[in-house]
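Risk mitigation, structural track. In case the binding assays with beta-D-fucofuranose fail to produce interpretable data, a predicted complex structure has been prepared as a fallback.
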Amino acid sequence: MKKYLPLLILPLLLLVSCKKAAEGESSKTITVGFSQIGAESDWRKASTLSIKEEAKKRGIELKFSDAQQKQENQLKAIRAFIAQGVDVIALAPVVTTGWDDVLKEARAANIPVILIDRRVDVSEDGLYACYIGADCTEEGRKAGRWLIENVGKQAGIAELVGTVGSGPAVERKKGFEEAIKGEPGLKIIKSQSGDFTRSQGKEVMEQFLKSPERDQINVLYAHNDDMALGAIQAIEEAGKKPGKDIVIISCDGVKEIFRQILAGKANCTVECNPMVGPYLFDVVETYMRGETIPPRVIPHEDVFDAKNITQEVIDGRSY
Ligand code: GYE
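Fallback model:
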């Protein structure tokens, strides 16, 4: 029995560390420090807005910091939040590694960290309290399955990868490769990062279309809609028809890609839900009430293509 004791105690410690003694603090304004990645995509802007609006609605004080896609800025922001003694820290981590030290500092200060939208790789359990975000590997699989079902078993694929070292870039690649691995006729012939931005998506697609393999490319898989939108421009400028000569599959589900799908210039988007404000502050308020918070929250997501996109659907979406 003795050798199992540490295994039994560890989960208990984790649960205890994620709970707060709420007595006597119910009337105090809750303060949350939020380190956001940047404003690199329409998805990101929607996520920022969702969090700001929800904090306002609930009367929660939000200290917002934009890291401009740089981890060093996020580390500084988290340390500042710790120094200010916020109740909770929310972090959308730009990359997966390099967080151990700062998360240990937050834990030593008894401030729980809630991860939003991207995961981290850490050396021990209990360094963050909860992770709210999509299953990006499954998003990659959905994109791969859509390709097989709608395009077939023969294609030359160009891949626009997200930010190097970020969770969604690694996972969307992995899931997609997993889904197509049984189909030897589906080949990824080009793969490069466009850093999740429209401008770099365009630039990298231009290079793909000048490469010796250019005539073999008939599918583009972009890890986000913004890079796909940049690529659409590059494809048109190269004299080809996006959505027809090159089938376009991406992830996120922002309004602009919906419009392009409706216009026949893009083909499929795998939704990734950026409206995380309500999920985040539900968890924050649960913690502040002294209740146990869930370790993982996965928002609901769909797949969209010409079969289910209408102008009404576009008008009904908030991002
Ligand atoms: O797909 C992309 C953004 O982390 C899931 O980051 C998020 C990704 C999203 O910039 O557009």
